[in-house]
Hints:
- β1 (68-74), α4 and β2 form a beta-alpha-beta unit.
- Mean pLDDT is 86; it is low at 42-47.
- The chain has one domain (68-316): Alpha-Beta Complex (Spore Coat Polysaccharide Biosynthesis Protein SpsA, Chain A).
- It is of the alpha/beta class.
- The longest helix is centred in the last third of the chain and has 22 residues, at 277-298.
- The protein is built from twelve helices and ten strands.
Amino acid sequence: MAFEHSRKKLFKIFLxxxxxxxxxxxxxxxxxxxxxxxxxxxxxxFEYEITRSGEFYYTILPKFKPLVSVLVRTCNRPNVLRSTxxxxxxxxxxxxxxxxxxxxxxxxxxxxxxEFNDLTIKYYPxxxxxxxxxxxxxxxxxxxxxxxxxxxxxxxxxxxxLETMVAQFERNPDLYIANSLSFIAEIETISTTPYLYKEKKxxxxxxxxxxxxxxIKDNFYPIQSIMFKRNVYEELGGFNLDLDHYEDxxxxxxxxxxxxxxxxxxxxxxxxxxxxxETKRKRAASFAKHRNMVYSYAKDLKLNIDLFSLSELQKxx
Length: 317
């Protein structure tokens, strides 16, 4: 969260420590071989990891505290779910509920009751497996928040995600849907019990400025990076049940064909994808099939706006 004269104070600290740089680079040069033996194997500027874009993004805690429904889909992997719920526990904005739908038996119920009873979690196991889209639609139907967002069980919010997103809706009363930047992390799973993984690659996933033309081309906006008002869902509905992948892509195409998307230039979440070749191959084959299905359904979407108003579909900050 921003504080008065923060940039000036940080710059003063930087100037006061400039004299340390020569000795730092000399030490790095002398210990080059030792550093290469350890992870990370390279330095990126002053950091050990990729920079989180938007570190100076100006935000203020919202004065009004609308209820946010965080919609979580999970399926028989409580050890993975644990880290996702921990990221919700750490949110600076506290007025939210978690609508957690388990696709299948109530495997995660014990975890929720014993480790996360401090969170407002409404838990709905489906008993039998129903698929991602039905699970998502159940979460949408059971939600009560004025603002809605998704967070699947292997993705994370940074602690200021809800604060940053809600603040934009407070500043812009006419705003209906907004997106923020997200890291996509390619991971190699080491163990599922306990859940351990190694990040092989991490980069910013979506475009800094929302583009409807870019969204038509591909699904550049991860599901957890977008927040929308409840009445958008009530008017335009939830997931298409014919899809098993790219269901969020069609949903965003549907929503943004009617309402402008407001872009926030700040990384607020992490979206994980597997790096194992066999898993990637199977996912690619399934995605190719569902891509054509999305295009088929999207043909029915219409933009009833004039040329000037078209620019309003590409707002950013």
